[in-house]
């Protein structure tokens, strides 16, 4: 069994190391057989307490290659490592097939808001987290940066959106607690994020510094509700956010705010678990105080672990900056020791058992079943003039500017033979003049898949062109047009006069397969929107 030392036996460098969670560059390929030079340095020379895996570090098609890499990394560490990842489900997953990616948080919110009700949503949230935990543990990962307990009450939020369970703080709290129990009861450290809340922003903190301007009463009744709930249920870790809350601290964003991390979270709310920053290389910190300086400021504010995901030189500067701050007395050694004690306490709680024997839980029929059940239960018909289901139509056209059209069309053809697809995106198949689309009259009905702008993907969709495409199809098909929002339900704001509107909350294969089943009458959707779409009626 892993041995977690007492803090009294650790040198200053070792104690500083335990407060670090670092990632490394380099894409893992099928030929990779060992860890990278950067990974070796952060584990062996810097003695980090935790590492974080990003998509570039894993080869999903060869899960046990990741396991071998992490076993080697653990063998280099003097103290057992926390190995963290963002495997939220839905739009944020570092592992793909054969791992199960699940429909995501807002899909669970839709189930809870529909006919099945909150109890069913909680059960699904917990079962999903249990399945994710088993799959992560099998490859040596023991910390998941989930659940997201941000309350998404801003439809223009560019980074949270469907990663949130919805806009109702109490719904988010209940589902967040259920997911947390699923992770932690299975042996994976859960991490509620992003404190004190990233749901009411229209700026991505990866790119700039957002501001949430609500007063204290509003913050108490919205943003803090889910965090209070998961704290009461025993959440092992909480992640900070790089957002300015003027009502709480008019000068410093949450990650480096003593008033927020110590005054509010520690003293007022009573949280004594592990507190980790979001990545300090995000522009909201890197372009303001700077990453290395931000690490010192975050620890002074009350953070126990600082997250630096990418750049080796920046990581070296971060270690040096913390060391100099401790030696000068700027960062009191008592504050460092407090942070280290929390890291070691969390390791004793979650690293007490030996790693799982080699197994392949992603092949478990129960995991396949729960993924499919959640996907089907989450499909939400917002409007239906009678076009759904499509059984009465003999020829159906599917159109989209998003490449997910290919997978959806394959699923649709399982239910109807006369289905054709038309990709009108700009990437590799041309950008046809929408006004000159021909042959639309050959089809009895049409399905248009829509998606918002996704800055982190290669396929960028011009929103005005997409809205114009929907209007062209609405003119051609009238009430025989179905618009399916395959990510954000808020797409409807751009084309309100649509008679048939359906939401999936994501375009993972399970959700697209469920969408096809719902539209062609295989099952009757029962979910409801967990958010409000402004201006729609």
Fold and architecture overview:
With 537 residues, the protein is an alpha/beta fold. It is 37% helix and 12% strand. The chain has 17 helices and 16 strands. It has helices spanning 12-18, 37-45, 63-76, 105-113, 118-138, 169-185, 216-221, 224-232, 258-268, 283-286, 291-301, 312-328, 333-350, 365-378, 405-412, 463-477, 509-519, and strands at residues 20-22, 50-53, 82-85, 87-89, 92-93, 143-144, 189-195, 237-240, 274-276, 306-308, 380-383, 396-400, 419-423, 445-450, 481-485, 501-503. The strands form three sheets. The protein has an eight-stranded parallel β-sheet. A six-stranded mixed β-sheet has the order 11-16-15-14-12-13, with helices on both faces. The longest helix has 21 residues, at 118-138. It is globular, with a radius of gyration of 24 Å. The N and C termini lie far apart (59 Å).
